[in-house]
Design brief:
single chain, about 400 residues, alpha/beta, Aspartate Aminotransferase, domain 1, Aspartate Aminotransferase, domain 2, three-stranded antiparallel β-sheet, binds pyridoxal-5'-phosphate, transferase, transaminase activity, aminotransferase, pyridoxal phosphate binding
């Protein structure tokens, strides 16, 4: 066998998104790209904001000597200081450069965190539906995941989380705004989660961390903003990236920020920096660190995303699809009209609509639409959704 048994079994069951991507390629070759409506990937279709191009040109015109060399494994001090300043302003906490570690995207950041905090057999609690990579990331570092359900409106079920904490629990992941539901957790929920964690940590005599995975934090609608986790949860580690808010997923730039209030935060950050090194990331991409330092208050056009959400939300609900109206990220997560979400997704394919079944996120009976696509494609897809609804007798 050329690969490890564990990887072989993970490979077979791992990715609905990848399967749908392959199906999309097949359909496009038959019907033409304009006649296939691909809502599978969370890959921003728009370009980074103009300020990014400007910063890139400035750097190219006036290169900084040594700018392509190795650096501290934590990343450039000036970048970490720029991030810390914004986090401190938003959260009211004394976040400084030495609480921030630059990472290879949010995915790299999560792996660094798990490497740093998990002992073999430690448990990490996740709420369904969830970003499917969490299970792999935790497993990479010897941990196991405990899945708890969310409430019917996809808010956190705090009782279920509290009930799932054991003497082996090391962390709870929260993802807000959420992939795949688009739901944002309000400040009261975070404050209540903090109480649970504080109480259980004291009872069990062991640190339990809340890892807030928030690459969509700047993408929120209807005047709602994402409450700063560093303000509400003492034992919090914020993990994020500029993959979504600056539309830079291919550039692999993100960071971890440790709450300054964590006991022994210095040792924790030292461990994070060490793990960034020994996982082979060494440091986050140098050029990107220079650029994003100047872009902490920039983002892609959020109003354009809101317009796309509204277009699809109104059309689909008028057809009889049921869903929670999401206030962030760029996903809709409607209930599948067929009990079997995989059968529904296959039915949608007959109308050249590509969707991901909820099963791919640990939540049967739903499906995900990623609307980070061209508005023109959404408009072209509307009659196909109408035909799909009619074919199902909605
Ligand atoms: N977390 C969530 C919830 C995501 O949706 C994604 C990417 O889609 C990531 C983490 C990984 O982000 P990155 O591309 O910055 O590694």
């Amino acid at each position: 066998m050329p690969v490890a048994q564990q990887i072989k079994s993970q490979l077979t069951g791992s990715s609905w998104i990848r399967k749908m991507f392959e199906e999309g390629t097949r359909l496009k070759s038959i019907y033409g790209a304009d006649n296939v409506y691909d809502f599978t990937l969370g890959n921003p279709g728009d370009e980074p904001p103009a300020a990014f191009g400007q910063a890139l040109r400035e750097l190219a015109n006036e290169p900084i000597p040594g700018m392509h060399r190795y650096m501290s494994n934590a990343g450039y001090e000036e970048t970490r200081a720029a991030i810390a300043e914004v986090l401190a302003e938003d959260s009211g906490q004394p976040v400084r450069a030495n609480h921030v570690v630059m990472t290879v995207g949010a995915g790299g950041g999560l792996n660094v965190v798990f490497k740093a905090i998990l002992d073999p057999g430690d448990e990490v609690i996740i709420s369904a539906p969830y970003f499917v990579e969490y299970k792999f990331y935790v497993g990479n570092h010897g941990g196991t995941t405990t899945v708890v359900p969310s409430l019917p409106d996809f808010q956190l079920d705090l009782d279920a989380i509290a009930g799932a904490i054991t003497a082996k629990t090391r962390a709870i992941i929260v993802n807000t705004p959420n992939n795949p539901t688009g739901v944002i957790y309000p400040a009261e929920t975070l404050a209540a989660l903090n109480q649970i964690v504080e109480q259980k940590s004291a009872e069990l005599g062991r640190a339990i961390y809340v890892i807030s995975d928030e690459p969509y934090a700047k993408i929120s609608y209807d005047g709602v903003t994402v409450p700063p986790v560093l303000r509400y949860i003492k034992n919090s580690l914020l993990v994020t990236s500029h993959s979504k808010d600056l539309a830079l997923p291919g550039e692999r730039i993100g960071y971890i920020a440790a709450n300054p209030a964590i006991a022994d935060v210095g040792m924790l950050v030292e461990a994070l920096v060490f793990c960034n090194r020994i996982l082979g990331f060494v440091n986050a991409p140098a050029l990107m660190q220079r650029l994003i330092a100047k872009l902490q208050r920039e983002s892609v056009d959020i109003a354009a995303y809101q317009e796309k959400r509204d277009l699809l939300y109104h059309h689909l609900t008028s057809l009889g699809f049921e869903m929670v109206k999401p206030q962030g990220a760029f996903y809709l997560f409607p209930r599948s009209p067929l009990e079997d979400d995989i059968a529904f997704v296959q039915e949608a394919q007959k109308h050249n609509i590509l969707l991901v079944p909820g099963s791919g996120f640990g939540q049967k009976g739903y499906f995900r639409i990623a609307y980070c696509v061209e508005k023109a494609m959404i408009e072209r897809s509307l009659p196909a959704f109408t035909a799909l609804a009619q074919s199902l007798g909605l």
